[in-house]
Design a protein that fits this description.
Largest sheet: 8 strands, mixed
Strand content: 25-35%
Strand order of the largest sheet: 1-2-3-4-5-6-8-7
Oligomer: single chain
Shape: globular
Helix content: 25-40%
């Protein structure tokens, strides 16, 4: 089972390995990145190694796919994007992503997420892609709106982070909606 490598104009989405541990740690040790990630900032590089191992196990178990987002121009890892709670039988998953703050607002997240959506509907045969987003995460909500996701509702007390419960929004994109958006 070969890990799928995806490419866009500016990005290459690759399998994360232990050689990417420093980049993953650098990104996920930043409070501004993890604030809406559902976890506290990393304080040990071993946390990044465990996360990469978990991504690999989920891929092997067909429960998720997580790509490292690499800039084509300099081969630098700038974040990750992927499918969580992948359920091939029911043709659904939830999308998640994060980028290093130095690269926010440059269209990289939209480029990576769009490619994962395309792959999910065309290659994996998914019908539904969900997203769980903190209401305060305006940038992510804006991105998902731009990509055609619909707001389904508020999940009260859904995430437990930093010793408190947080509400989240549930959004989704269905394959027929995505296909219609591709006709334009």
């Amino acid at each position: 089972m070969t890990f799928p490598i995806l490419e866009t104009k500016r990005l290459k989405l690759i399998e994360l390995t232990h050689q990417h541990m420093n980049a993953v740690y650098e990104i996920l040790s930043l409070d501004e990145v993890t604030r809406f990630y559902g976890t506290s900032p990393f304080t040990l590089q071993a946390e990044a190694t465990r996360l990469i191992d978990m991504f690999h196990k989920h891929y092997l178990d067909k429960r998720g796919i997580r790509w490292g987002i690499k800039l084509r121009e300099n081969q630098r890892i700038i974040g990750t994007v992927g499918l969580n709670v992948l359920n091939l039988k029911n043709k659904r998953a939830e999308i998640g992503y994060e980028l290093h703050p130095a690269l926010w607002r440059q269209g990289f997240a939209a480029e990576a997420v769009s490619e994962v959506i395309r792959f999910s509907f065309e290659q994996l045969g998914l019908y539904r892609i969900g997203a769980i987003v903190y209401p305060e995460n305006i940038a992510s909500l804006s991105l998902l709106d731009k990509l055609g996701f619909s707001h389904e509702g508020l999940l009260r007390g859904y995430m437990f982070q930093e010793e408190q419960f947080h509400d989240t929004f549930m959004l989704s994109l269905l394959k027929p909606e995505w296909e219609k958006s591709q006709e334009k």
